[in-house]
Amino acid sequence: MRVLVTGGSGRIGRFAVRDLAAAGHDVTSVDVAPTGEPGCRHLRADLTDAGQVYQALAAARAEAVVHLGAWANAGVVPHTRTYGDNVQGTYNVFQACADLGIRRIVSASSAQVYGFAGAPPLFVPVEEDHPCRPVNCYALAKAAGEQAAAYFGANHGLEILSFRIMGVRRPDEIAAEMARLEANRDSGGSLLWTRTDARDAALACRLAVEVDRVETGPYNITGAQVVVDEDAADLVARCFGAATEVRAPLSGRQSPMSCARAEAAFGYRPRFVWTPTQHHPET
């Protein structure tokens, strides 16, 4: 399959490009700063320019798109630009796909739409019906992207999977974060003490591209377990207390955010389960 990856030089994108190419797909990476990742073609393009988006998709003769290109968080650039560029870029990708007949899109949203940096989860395990409560411009833009996905799904027949990715990190970043969390476990609630290996996020992208049919909508993508040496149920009870309803028991170090919908839809199961005694450095 011919797959175009926006943000192909980014934290997830470079692994998505590798994973797709290794699986035999014809990959084109689009980024404002191409890195020369092997196994694919590279285009330099600005997603906020609709003409460049159309030309990139046409040049790649894309059959599917993995849309990861965006300012990666609030505070990288001024807030107006974070929101404006991310919303515009996402809309441009969706509109171009609709016009060019590209039906399958994997689009990076974020677990930040849940607002756990501002308030504890209302319930655990956190499933996709949890209310969205954006607390910054980045999360607000991601929520707008999900609304655009629903619009294009309903009105243009696109299949758009909005990945609510939580705590994604490169393999070389995770061990240090685990050590900091272990030293201060109570500080980890905003990401539910969970980290996602970027290689697993890339796997999710490929699986979602390859599945025959899938429903437009949000899908949680995160690691399988909390990365500190404590059961998840104890962490939730101690740090969130009565503010968080326990709808189903958390078993051992099971992540408080559920990826059951992604597993059922396209078979996502994290391969790299990081624990205090089990690390997975990149080889």
Summary tags:
16% strand; 283 residues; 37% helix; Rossmann fold; single chain; globular; alpha/beta; seven-stranded parallel sheet
Sheet with the most strands: spatial strand order: 3-2-1-4-5-7-10
Outline: globular
| Unreliable stretches covering 5 or more consecutive residues | none
So, the CATH homologous superfamily? NAD(P)-binding Rossmann-like Domain
Approximately how much helix is present in the residues?
25-40%
Describe this entry's structure for a reader.
- By secondary structure, the chain is an alpha/beta fold.
- It has a single domain (2-169, 196-223, 256-266), classed as NAD(P)-binding Rossmann-like Domain (Rossmann fold, 3-Layer(aba) Sandwich), CATH 3.40.50.
- Helices cover 37% and strands 16% of the residues.
- The protein has helices at 13-22, 50-60, 79-100, 137-156, 171-183, 198-210, 232-240, 260-266; strands at 2-6, 26-31, 41-44, 64-67, 104-108, 123-124, 159-165, 168-169, 196-197, 217-221, 245-246.
- The protein has a seven-stranded parallel sheet with strand order 3-2-1-4-5-7-10, with helices on both faces. The chain has a two-stranded parallel ribbon with strand order 6-11. Strands 8-9 form a two-stranded parallel ribbon.
- Helix 2 packs across helix 3 and helix 3 (79-100) runs parallel beside helix 4 (137-156).
- The radius of gyration is 18 Å and the shape is globular.
